[in-house]
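Regression check, zinc ion case 445:
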Amino acid sequence: MSESGPGRAESGRIAGEDEVVDLCSELIRIDTSNYGDHSGPGERAAAEYVAEKLADVGLAPEIFESHPGRASTVVRIEGEDRSRPGLLIHGHLDVVPANADDWSQNPFGGEVVDGCVWGRGAVDMKDMDAMTLAVIRDRVRSGRKPPRDVVLAFLADEEAGGTYGARHLVDNHPGLFEGVTEAIGEVGGFSFTVNENLRLYLVETAEKGMHWMRLTVDGTAGHGSMTNKDNAITELCEAVGRLGRHQFPVRLTKSVRGFLDELSDAFGVELDPEDMDETLARLGGIARMIGTTLRNTAAPTMLGAGYKVNVIPGQATAHVDGRFLPGYEEEFLADLDRVLGPRVKRETLHSDKALETDFDGSLVDAMRAALKAEDPISHTVPYMLSGGTDAKSFSDLGIRCFGFAPLQLPPELDFAGMFHGVDERVPVDGLTFGVRVLDHFLDNC
Ligand SMILES: [Zn+2]
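Current build output:
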């Protein structure tokens, strides 16, 4: 890994650093709120903006509209060695909605205030979209080809499961990803500062899977004043109460094991996975992302039954958000049925797979080296995301997916709280850092 790749200025500064902030602000100003249906503004305007920025430097992007207004932009950049398998860099263009009244800045203003770019999508994930655009524009302009083919995909609809974005492209235009074997996207590559000698960068190597479920208990309907030993509400509530309080067993997958080993080294303590509360507390806000990757979880989220105070209804229902670890889906479902008991009928409304890949190989080496070049106290570690991303769709094409959207964060910023949160913002220094890291990464990918 050289200190400055070909085409880099003596200072190490690259042109992409100069425009990444404007690109991020301009993307934030294009409202792409995704309400989970087609009632929002859609991603078409953002997809066109991205396509223009790519065409501007001589690339030939294509826009794919899956439904009126729902659009993704894809472009392939030829690498030095076209016989090598390709690399996908993907980012989504949609954002979750924001209620402007709750914010201290306009969520769609993209203003730079106190050294940060503010707005919905600043960390999830117009930051990475802007970094990718800035780096690629700079490299194309200066004639620096990546070592192999790189496909860029700027996608619709990630925040609602990707049906009109990644899923649509994978199912209907798989040829776009021909020969691609590896990918980087959200949520990883961000920093956690341990002390002045050590900064961890968390690369996502695994994602939990999900089961969204409806639970139903059928009982005997009747008058509220009379004896009834078969009350559906009573039965359901007892089962939901048991489930809500149930602690699923700790199961360490290789990503979580790898993360805990690194954490143990970083803090110089032996970790007991059964008793992680204290250790997780040291992680500050990101503990919220890490804590639930030790075990399966099932959170009751909705309840429904009855229509009149003196009528015992014949049925009661509840909804549960279930998340399982890679390799533990069967155990999860068996545990659920055991805890719920025979009276409860369980239906899955929506499910998606869990993912896990090894934290090794030349692509991981390239990430590690790129971070090291820009941050000498960096230490790159694997981790599991408790949620899901478009990686689930791309994995269907046999693509090995990583979360690597490099950002150096000030220790005091509650990064996890930024995701879908109020006052979402990204440090300007984090963006320029990310551009430099991605540039190194593309030299060696
Ligand atoms: Zn996201």
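Comparison notes: Residues 1-6 have pLDDT under 50 and may be disordered. The two ends are 11 Å apart (CA to CA). No diff flagged against the previous build.
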